[in-house]
Amino acid sequence: MPPRRQALEKLKFQDKLVKGHATDVLLKKLKALHTELSEMDQERVDTKSLMAVRKELIHTSLLHHKDKGVKAYVACCLADLLRLYAPDAPYTADELRDIFQFFFKQLTSGLKGPDAPYYSQYFYLLESLSTIKSVVLVCDLPSADELITEIFRDFFDLISQNMAKNVEMFMSDILVALIDEAQTLPSELLNTILAQFMQKSNRQDTAALRLAVDVCNRTAERLQRNVSQYFTDIILQHDEDDDEIDHIRSAHDLIISLNKSCPALLLNVVPQLEEELKVDRLQLRTLATQVLGEMFGELKNGVELSRKYHAAWQAWLTRKNDKAVAVRLAMVEATKSIIINHAEMRNEIEEVLRLKLYDPEEKVRAAVCKVYSQVDFETALHHISADQLKEIASRCMDKKRSVRQEAFACLGRLYRLAFTEIESNDALTIEQFGWIPDLIFQSASMSPEVKNDAFGVIYRYILPLPSKGEDEATWTEQLLIVAKDLEERGMAMLLSMSNLKSSRPTIYEKFVECCISNNGGIIDENEEEIARALSKVIQIISSMLPDPSKAAEDLNSFAKANESRLYKLFKTCVDTQSDLKSIAKSSSEFLRRVEQTLPNALDTLTSLLQHASLSIINQSSVPTLIKRLQQKSSRPTPNPEYSHSQTQHSQRNQSQSQTQASELQSNSTAQILAIRAKSILVYAAKNCPAIFKPHVVELARAISSAATLPNGIDDDDDDVIMDEGERAKTTYLEVCMQCLAAAVRMDPELAPTDKRTVDRLVKLGEGDYPRIAKFAARILAHSKNRLDVCSALMEKLALGLPNATEDRLVANLAVFAQFAGSAPQIFEEKSEVVIDHLVKTVLMTPSPKPKMQEDGEDEWGDLDQLGALTKAKLLSIKICANRCLSNASAPTAIDMSTPVFRMLWNLLENSGSFDPHALDDPQVKSRIRLQAALSLLKLSQVSIYCKIVTAHLPLLALTVQDTCFNVRHTFLCKLTQHLALRKLDPRFNVIAFLTAHDPEKEIRDRARSYITTYFQRSTPDVRLSNFEMIFIRFLHLLAHHPDFSTDAEGLLDMAKYVEFYVDVISSSDNISLLYHLAMKAKSVRDAESDKYNENLYVMSELAQHILKARAKAQSWNLPSYPGKIKLPIDIFKPHPNQETANKVFRTAYLSEEALSSLEGIGKAWKSPKSKVSFSFLSLYAHIPYSPQHQQPQRPPAKRKQPSARNGQAGAKSKRRKKINSSDEEESPATDSDDGDVFMKSDNEVKTENATHPETDESDIASDEPEAVGRGARTRNAKIRRKRAAKSKAPS
Length: 1291
What we know:
Layout: H1 23-39, H2 51-57, H3 60-63, H4 68-85, H5 93-110, H6 119-132, H7 144-158, H8 165-181, H9 187-198, H10 207-218, H11 220-237, H12 242-261, H13 269-276, H14 282-296, H15 302-308, H16 310-317, H17 325-333, H18 335-341, H19 346-356, H20 362-373, H21 377-382, H22 386-394, H23 401-423, H24 427-433, H25 436-443, H26 448-462, H27 472-484, H28 488-497, H29 507-518, H30 527-543, H31 548-561, H32 564-574, H33 580-597, H34 602-612, H35 621-631, H36 644-647, H37 654-666, H38 669-687, H39 696-704, H40 724-746, H41 755-765, H42 770-781, H43 786-799, H44 806-822, H45 824-829, H46 831-843, H47 863-886, H48 893-909, H49 922-939, H50 943-951, H51 953-957, H52 965-980, H53 1001-1017, H54 1020-1028, H55 1031-1039, H56 1048-1065, H57 1071-1080, E1 1084-1086, H58 1093-1114, E2 1132-1134, H59 1138-1146, H60 1152-1157, H61 1176-1180, H62 1272-1288
């Protein structure tokens, strides 16, 4: 028996709905109907029983009822009917249209939140449409497109943040169903969807956006073609006009948004973008580059996108060579996200960016640097190679400032991010970033423009002022950590930036004083003088800044503002007695006030503050530095005191450099920090002892409580093994004594007076340590009871000279040198005994060449290896010079100095020996003749001795052409330092021009740098007296040169000297003066001997020829000089009569043949310019990092003739450093920013003790080196004979 069919379920509701029921009654009936319909099963319903309510529910009285509840229940009932009738629709197309419009109208008005009335009914309606999918009936209606678009628009307007998640899900289901079932997708519908992505910037992560993302991801396959067509239409419909390009740009922004949320939609869009990369329309190509770059950099799918669309990825990479700057720039800027998010793509991007670092457009180069500056620490550490960072570093020397600034900022920011790990001594971080400070500091020494940019990043990132709450000791420790990884040149620049080396008051303090006197332009007295002084100071300071004209304008504005508070703050920043917290606070307030009152001058005044303040090293640094030295000190590498002379040849002498690097690497971090602390303290003691004034008591206590030192041991003796603890105590005591001695010499009132300390100093003065004995003597020489104490010490040491050991003798002579200079009255008590002993026992004792030393070996060696006798000889020369200086004002000064000068000239004449036939050690002779030349420079600073020295100036000048590099280099350094401070007569400037033939570019560059810098910064009257008027003296000096010759080669050599002068000094303003001076040389005779007259006249005509050629080459006018010139009478005398004068004037001393051999002379100077290239970075960038790694050796210089550099052809010289280097105050180096020297008049120039800088020498190899200076001529003949003999010897 077959199963019985289940009876269909019929609707029980029989009430009428359209009669005039009250609202309450109608609601009750509709609710009952809805309840019954919702419970009916679609499979078992008898649809015929629904006919009555089906018609009534679409009656207009219900659909347009005024009550919301009625309409809500009507909508639910209609939704139930559609469910029950499914899959067929019980209504006509028009009725369905009205029903669905009714549905979505109810939803948009009522589905606003759970608290809304009848919310459950609206939710029921939404759920029904979503689950039953009855909404797809819309797609079959005649006007389906309009209705679908309206539904989408209503839903995106309706959805909000506070809606339940299931509501969003139901909405998404409805919209997805409509897209899937629609026969065509209207453009307005797509616009509605995409509009949600375009509004993302205004409504971050909105519900509408989430809905759009969900719908697009679920219907990606259906929408792909439409989306592609959408972008194509936009591009084709709009031109690149300003009004139209915004539409195209918006479309590309939309692509970026879609890629982040719905990348599947862009299946056909990415190829379109690839094609856009190749179009001629620049803006479209730029937009495509930007968009693809951001897409490839997307965190979620960037790598996948580059693999899926490999052709597009490769096409995008080729935009690095696009002809348009905007495209290349867009490509570079887009790489940031790729670098940060995708390590897999790093190699390709790094190669692109490496090439773009050398792009011809500065904006592109700067953009590359900026990209790397924006990465985070972890990315920079693990996903950027050190080689790439060093390529960025090469841009620190870019010609364009914008590129330099971005490169510096990039390196500085990365270092600041890594500093915490560097401070923790993390090896990986140090290897990746530890080299950055050294490179920045070395860059600062290249040129004034680069220096200013480097200063900015150093003060901002490398050594920023301490923040509020950071103690001074912590900040000083950070300074030491930065210094720890610096190499020699970088350390020298750090010390230079400390502004300790400027003479006090500095040019910046004088500027403030001039501003105060100027009083904003309201001056009661001496108005012209005050205005002139202010103008001069501003001119000097502005010449040190990158844009002198703007700087001068800003400084004038600062003076006119006349803000007393700014003056006070600035003074605090430059005061040697200010502590770090005061400097930091004052600097911050100063810049804040400037920004408020003089915003246009902020950059200039920021640079001014950086150049002037003592923020890096100040009196607050001293306790921490001494504590660090006391905690852990070891034997430093030979002389870790960074004098300026050392910095100029950091790539020389690889042997010494490697030794220093290996020693430093073997030390612990604490030991290296102690070495750096010592370097800083010694530098401060030499240049700014005032910072030790608050710490004198602690320094004296440290000396008095120091342990007794072992006798007979020289701290610098390589043959004696000193215990680690003993060495630490010795170093600590030595540095404390040097600091105290510097403070006491500055202010004798600071000298210790307690008996324990004085007795301790006397004991140390009697000891065997030369440096410690020297500092003890210096302190005692400036103490209050120096007469008694020093006299007793002097007498004891003088009596013990005959029996003194070698070490004790050197220490005693160091004491005598101090007494001779600082306590002459005491020294004179035993001067006869001391001088007699020095002459007979020390100076006249021969220094034979070691048996193991072969002929032709280096002329320079470590002072330790030369023995105590050599040290004693050098100190003996110092004693004699110091004695003359301290007695310069005495009536017996000339008589006392005569034998000293005779000795010094004799040493120079005989190349460092008293006997021209002596077989002394060449290395000792080099040291002695250098010391003789330096002593003559010191003596020349006193007017009474200057006349004696200048009478023999040609002999002294030839020291700059010595056969030994170290002698030439050290002498030039000292010469330029003294000239920069105007301690020497202007006529000494001619010596610097003799470097034109030097085989070492380093020496030529240093001379050129000094001349150029100080000539440009000087006032017109100083230029005239110090550089222009000496031209006639220079010609006279060349006429007396031992190498002077009138043959073709000789004339070319002399012409090169003159060309060097003309190239550096001549201009359209002074060319007529120089030409006039050259002509005037034929109007006089040589004052020394008539045998030099013809030489002088040849030089006169040669100079005229060169000057005319230069004027022609530069298109300068060469008018007659209108003024009258008086030639110096010390080197010239007039002709005996007019007839002789006429004869000389008419005679041509340069033949036509000689002039023809000079063709091309004067038009272009071939010698290397003073601007040092940054090519060393390309080498430095690939060196494995180590904290003290030395730079690679430079290629050897080429020379014309056999080498006379060290007495051997092609000899390799090693960098040597003095063990007992001078501890006296150093003069500012020639590249110093101190502008005081340009304001001094001749009577303001003070005589100061000269210092003996440490000297270096580097390797050089050349086939045909050029001979320089006297001595080279005689040595070269011997060398050539020896080389010829060796070449003929059998192998």
